[in-house]
C-alpha cells in the first residue's frame, strides 16, 4: 500500500515538473539563449534548390529555429526579429538597435548568451561594431549561411545549431563577439569575408580561427587579439546616429578629387582602401593632408586582403595628420572611426585606438 502511494506521489511530482517546464517553456538545467534575426541568405529562399537565384531575408526566426533538429536540446531558445534584410542593406540604425537590445538582454541574469543571424556580406562589420559597444563578457555569436534555406545542402541549419552551442557554452565567456560558420569560430577583430560564395568564406588570415565547433562540440584554441566588449572604452548608449565616414578605393591613377567630394558631402572621416601598405598617389595624398588639416580624420588601410598597414611607412602619418589602420581592413576601420568620432581626440589618441582594437 505504502509502495503504491509512493509511486503515485513520484509520478505526480514528475508530472508537475514537466507541466512547469511546458508552462514557461524553460528547462532550468539549460542555458537561456536569445536569437536575434536580421535576415541574410540563412533566411533566404529561392524557387529552385539547384539554381543560384534567391532573395535574402524571407524566412522568419521561429521557422528557422524549428527547422534545426535537436537545437532545443542545447538551450532554451527565444527568437526576436530585429530586421529581415540582405546584409548589403545593413545600416547604422539596425546596429544601434542591436547594441541597445543586446546590452539590455545581457544585463538580465536569466540570459546567458546571444546568437545573431545575419547576412554574410557585412557580417564582419556588424560583429566588429558589437565587439566595440557590447558591455558584457557573455557570448555574442553571429552566424549566417552562403546557401539559402531552399538550396541543396543548405548549411544554415548546422551553422545555427553550432552558433547556439557556442553561445550556450560556459567556455565561450570572455572571447568578445564571435562569428561561427562552417564549423569554425572566428573573432570579430580578425574575421574577414574572403570569398564571394563558397561556404569557407570566413577566415582569420592574420591570427587564425580562435576555435572550432563540430555538431555542437566546442573547443577554443586562443584568445582573440584586441580590446573588446568589457575592455572596450566605447559606448553608443543614447546615440541616435553615428558620424558619416566614407571609404575611397585606391587604384593606379586614382582620381584625386574623391576626398574633396566626400568632405563636401558631409563626411567627418575618410578611410582610404589604399594600394599596398596603405599608399595612394601624390594627388590623393595631397587631398588627404588638406582634409586632415581641416579636421577630417583620414585613415590609411589597404585594398590588399591580408596583412598589417605600418604606421609611418611610405606615408609619414604623424607629419601628415593621417591615421594608420594597422590590422583593420577598410570596412572595420570605418566602423572604429564612426564610433571613435563621438568624442574629440588628439592624433596620438586616435592612432592608439587603431593599434589597440
Ligand atoms: N547578400 C547576402 C547577405 O549578406 C549574402 C549572404 O547572406 O550570404 O545578406
In short:
The chain has helices spanning about 1-25, 60-65, 90-105, 125-135, 155-170, 260-265, 280-295, 315-320, 330-340, 345-355, and strands at about 30-40, 75-85, 115, 140-145, 175-180, 185, 190-195, 200-205, 210-215, 215-220, 245-250, 270-275, 295-300, 325.
Protein model, in words:
The structure is a single chain. The protein is of the alpha/beta class and 357 residues long. The protein folds into two domains: 32-231, 3-Layer(aba) Sandwich (Rossmann fold); 245-356, Rossmann fold (3-Layer(aba) Sandwich), CATH 3.40.50.40. 31% of the residues lie in helices and 19% in strands. It contains ten helices and 14 strands. It has helices spanning 2-24, 61-66, 92-106, 123-133, 156-168, 258-264, 282-293, 317-320, 330-340, 347-356; strands at 32-39, 76-85, 113-117, 140-143, 177-181, 184-187, 192-193, 202-203, 211-214, 217-220, 245-249, 269-274, 297-302, 323-324. Strands 2-1-3-4-5-6-9-10 form an eight-stranded mixed beta sheet, with helices on both faces. A four-stranded parallel beta sheet has the order 11-12-13-14, sandwiched between helices. The protein has a two-stranded antiparallel ribbon with strand order 7-8. The protein starts with a helix and ends with a helix. The structure holds aspartic acid. Aspartic acid is lined by residues 40-41, 56, 86-88, 119-121, 144, 146. Aspartic acid binds next to loops.
Amino acid at each position: 500500500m505504502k509502495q503504491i502511494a509512493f509511486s503515485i506521489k513520484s509520478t505526480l511530482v514528475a508530472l508537475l515538473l514537466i507541466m512547469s517546464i511546458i508552462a514557461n517553456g524553460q528547462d532550468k538545467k539549460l542555458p537561456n539563449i536569445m536569437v536575434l534575426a536580421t535576415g541574410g541568405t540563412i533566411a533566404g529562399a529561392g524557387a529552385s534548390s539547384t539554381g543560384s537565384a534567391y532573395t535574402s531575408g524571407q524566412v522568419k526566426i521561429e521557422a528557422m529555429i524549428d527547422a534545426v533538429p535537436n537545437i532545443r536540446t542545447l538551450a532554451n531558445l527565444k527568437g526576436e526579429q530585429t530586421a529581415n534584410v540582405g546584409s548589403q542593406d545593413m545600416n547604422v540604425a539596425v546596429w544601434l538597435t542591436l547594441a541597445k537590445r543586446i546590452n539590455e538582454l545581457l544585463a538580465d541574469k536569466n540570459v546567458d548568451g546571444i546568437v545573431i543571424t545575419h547576412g554574410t556580406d557585412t557580417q564582419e562589420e556588424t560583429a566588429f561594431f558589437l565587439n566595440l559597444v557590447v558591455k558584457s563578457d557573455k557570448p555574442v555569436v553571429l552566424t549566417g549561411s552562403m546557401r539559402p534555406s531552399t538550396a541543396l545542402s543548405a548549411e544554415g541549419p548546422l551553422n545555427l545549431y553550432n552558433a547556439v552551442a557556442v553561445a550556450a557554452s560556459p567556455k565561450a565567456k570572455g572571447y568578445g563577439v564571435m562569428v561561427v560558420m562552417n564549423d569554425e569560430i572566428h573573432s570579430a577583430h580578425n574575421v574577414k569575408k574572403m570569398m564571394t560564395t563558397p561556404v569557407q568564406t570566413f577566415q582569420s588570415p592574420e591570427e587564425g580561427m580562435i576555435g572550432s565547433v563540430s555538431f555542437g562540440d566546442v573547443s577554443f584554441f586562443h584568445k582573440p587579439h584586441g580590446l573588446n566588449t568589457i575592455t572596450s572604452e566605447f559606448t553608443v548608449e543614447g546615440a541616435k546616429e553615428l558620424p558619416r565616414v566614407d571609404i575611397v578605393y585606391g587604384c593606379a591613377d586614382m582620381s584625386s578629387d574623391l576626398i574633396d567630394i566626400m568632405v563636401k558631402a558631409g563626411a567627418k572621416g575618410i578611410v582610404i582602401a589604399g594600394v599596398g601598405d596603405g599608399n595612394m598617389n601624390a594627388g590623393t595624398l595631397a587631398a588627404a593632408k588638406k582634409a586632415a588639416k581641416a579636421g577630417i580624420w583620414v585613415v590609411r588601410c589597404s585594398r590588399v586582403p591580408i596583412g598589417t598597414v605600418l604606421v609611418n611607412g611610405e606615408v609619414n602619418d604623424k607629419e601628415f595628420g593621417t591615421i594608420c589602420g594597422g590590422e583593420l581592413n577598410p570596412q572595420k576601420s570605418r566602423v572604429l572611426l564612426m564610433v571613435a568620432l563621438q568624442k574629440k581626440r588628439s592624433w596620438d589618441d586616435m592612432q592608439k585606438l587603431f593599434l589597440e582594437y
